[in-house]
Amino acid sequence: MKTGITSVLLLGAVTALPLKRSEISFLKSKTDDAVVFQLGNITYLANTKYPKATISLTGDRNFHAFSGGRTSFPITVVSSNTSSITQQSLSATIGSYASDDVWTPDFLESVYISSTVASPGMGSAALTYLASLNVTETFLDSALAGGRMPAATICNSLNSSVVPPGPYLAVLSDASLSLAPVYRLYEDTYRDFLFGTYESGDGSGNFTSADLALPNFGYPLIPVPSRLYYWNDPRPFAGFRVAIKDLFDIKGLVTSGGSQAWAYISSPANATAPSIQRILDLGGTFVGKYKLAQFASGANPWEWQDEHYPFNPRGDGWLTCSASSSGGGCSIAAYDWLDYAIGSDTGSSMRRPAAVSGTYGNRPSQGMITLDGVIPLGGATDTAGVFSRDPYKWAYFAKQWYTPSLHQSSNVTGLAALSVPDNDGFPKTILFPTDYLPLNNSAAEPILDALIANMSSLFGMTVKRFNFTATVQAAVNPAVNNIVALNNGPLGIINSYTQWEVIGKPLVTTWARLFDGRFPPIDSARRAGWRAYNETRNSFTAYNNALEQKNAAVEWYETYVQYSTADSCSESVMLYDIGTGGLPSYREQNLNNNPNASFLAITPKGAAVTGASICPLYGCADYTIPIGQVPYYSQVTYHTEMVPVTINMVVKRGCDFVLFNMIERLADAGVLKAVKTGTTAF
Ligand SMILES: *[C@@H]1O[C@H](CO)[C@@H](O)[C@H](O)[C@H]1NC(C)=O
Ligand SMILES: *[C@@H]1O[C@H](CO)[C@@H](O)[C@H](O)[C@H]1NC(C)=O
Ligand SMILES: *[C@@H]1O[C@H](CO)[C@@H](O)[C@H](O)[C@H]1NC(C)=O
Ligand SMILES: *[C@@H]1O[C@H](CO)[C@@H](O)[C@H](O)[C@H]1NC(C)=O
Ligand SMILES: *[C@@H]1O[C@H](CO)[C@@H](O)[C@H](O)[C@H]1NC(C)=O
Ligand SMILES: *[C@@H]1O[C@H](CO)[C@@H](O)[C@H](O)[C@H]1NC(C)=O
Ligand SMILES: *[C@@H]1O[C@H](CO)[C@@H](O)[C@H](O)[C@H]1NC(C)=O
Ligand SMILES: *[C@@H]1O[C@H](CO)[C@@H](O)[C@H](O)[C@H]1NC(C)=O
Ligand SMILES: *[C@@H]1O[C@H](CO)[C@@H](O)[C@H](O)[C@H]1NC(C)=O
Ligand SMILES: *[C@@H]1O[C@H](CO)[C@@H](O)[C@H](O)[C@H]1NC(C)=O
Ligand SMILES: *[C@@H]1O[C@H](CO)[C@@H](O)[C@H](O)[C@H]1NC(C)=O
Ligand SMILES: *[C@@H]1O[C@H](CO)[C@@H](O)[C@H](O)[C@H]1NC(C)=O
């Protein structure tokens, strides 16, 4: 998602810059030697501890004169790609930087000119042009200077892949200049993050916690790097800004799982989880760890104690963010400066947060990506997905991120090895489960009807109405025809065994040892279950039996409900709603005791389990898709507000990429659209 360059328009903007430039104002030095400063009305962090490069200055100019005795000042590294650097080429290059949200013309106090071309020529008119922009000092790569640039400071050559173009904080000492990367500090006004983070830059692959908050309300500040740093980076995710659920290890940071007690007994992660290391390898970066229901539970907003529940920008600003990956869906709905958020889904935790925030979010097929280095919930029901506002960007990310080398082994999933074709063998049938649809709010139903009509006409699909619950109950095999028993029995074991072994037991025993037999202070969602955990019932043998029972259910499902044919990876796509069917669900419990509002995770009358429980059992892929919005009268603002309407699309395990291809076609046809940030999705 590199920002496009419209140099013609922007050229005018740059040449018309006011010459009065904002003065830099230092706010604080952090204990880890990063500094925070203000420039114009924007606050920045500069990683002065580990600058991108330190270059020696040569020649006999008085370095301290130009900086007015200051040792730190803003600088723009300009990367030229022409063989002859002229006023026009510099003007076009600098003009193109205005599309970035981190760089501002205030960084033109000084300029370093580097070139991606060997021995380029540079005329003195170029320097005159910089002077006209009120650039106080120009630093020139010695390769460019040719020894005849009295108005500039000559430096050693910079490697432009080590020091990419963009805004920096220059730090002067003796005859050398350090270039510290800068991050714009965005306010997390919806309090969706635990803390911001940035690459330590020490060569270790560590990340550093920004630990910065605004006075008054204590909103975390999230450090966001300039997109210019990635302009010359050919990797597919170059410059993507990604938020990570605080369940995934990032090297150098403590993974809290949303629990201060767990954070207390844990050391910083010594490696980044392979699933999210892949995002770094593809060129993306992590800007913060976001809030989650403690230990990825399904706790309601009013059941959170250890963290302050995050806010949803939609509607009245008082709606639920749902449970486990709540900060992810809500931050994607809130902030244009954020591109993606990564979360996990065991029972609903990507899909329902996406539904209530009106964003795209997926539960992939079981086994799609390794969860090593991630606090587990159900070892064989956990999955990792991505939130996005844009159907194309969502599909692009997912199709690069999920890669066969990171598939989980059958030993983890208990299921057959995963095969993920990437073709246009779309479903032929739209399964319409009459026990889960229509939508609860009749005002939302026309939006779904239009979608179904659009899918039918675009792809020639036929709609098949069926009763999901009755279909399961009609199975001949007694091992698979009781979905309630499967959900409570084997899935119950799967969803508690791994987390107890890896997290619960070590926390409870360590806490008791440290604090005279005390039980750790944790939210109510896990307290009773861990207090009374029965290792005899939930044994390793029981766990492996549960995996076999789940596998039998998956094999039945892929034979009788959603199966492959010669033409289609998944012969059907099943629709249902994991959200509220177009009703508001508030973060405040009492407000949901109202026929015009809804709690979450309701099992519809006549259905045996929630719709959310289908894919955790059958291993299928389940995507939440925003399709519209309907009005409601808010019990908080006493004003009409809009609530998102979403639908879930389910396909057979392994058909994730085919479903993404279908979603791109729906977007091509204008049926699906990118959602906006803020109060309304559309
Ligand atoms: C040029 O910039 C300097 C430093 O920011 C400032 O003091 C000066 O007033 C500016 N000159 C003009 C003509 O704006
Ligand atoms: C910050 O300053 C810019 C340029 O002067 C202005 O366009 C923008 O509205 C200001 N933003 C805020 C939040 O004050
Ligand atoms: C040089 O950079 C400009 C913008 O900075 C870009 O539009 C152009 O494609 C680049 N040319 C080459 C040859 O890379
Ligand atoms: C520039 O740095 C990159 C990355 O470290 C390296 O691969 C490349 O060889 C360097 N180029 C030069 C000319 O030193
Ligand atoms: C990186 O983080 C790990 C874990 O906190 C720590 O042990 C290590 O010292 C850090 N490395 C550097 C170079 O700071
Ligand atoms: C990281 O820590 C784990 C224990 O928490 C240990 O088993 C592993 O060897 C360590 N890895 C590295 C690279 O230090
Ligand atoms: C998977 O294999 C590993 C190593 O072979 C083993 O330790 C683990 O117990 C197995 N997991 C299950 C669920 O059988
Ligand atoms: C989708 O359905 C709406 C409402 O029926 C209709 O207006 C629109 O033309 C359809 N779009 C496509 C691409 O079929
Ligand atoms: C634990 O489970 C076993 C096996 O189901 C059962 O016999 C035992 O009574 C349970 N223990 C407790 C304390 O409930
Ligand atoms: C539909 O909404 C009502 C509140 O109006 C709620 O009681 C009911 O549980 C909801 N049903 C479903 C299936 O969400
Ligand atoms: C629910 O909404 C309807 C229609 O807007 C309204 O007439 C009714 O008073 C509302 N009920 C409550 C309890 O707010
Ligand atoms: C679906 O089937 C179940 C089980 O037979 C039944 O209880 C329920 O009423 C049916 N629902 C609908 C909408 O037909």
From TrEMBL:
Q: Give every Amidase domain span.
A: 235-399
Q: Which UniProt keywords apply?
A: Signal
Query: Is the keyword Magnesium in the record?
Result: no
Identify the InterPro entries for this entry.
Answer: Amidase_dom (IPR023631), Arp1_N (IPR058329), AS_sf (IPR036928)
Instruction: Point out the signal peptide segment.
Output: 1-16
Q: Which residues form a coiled coil?
A: none
Question: Which protein, by its recorded name, is this?
Answer: Uncharacterized protein
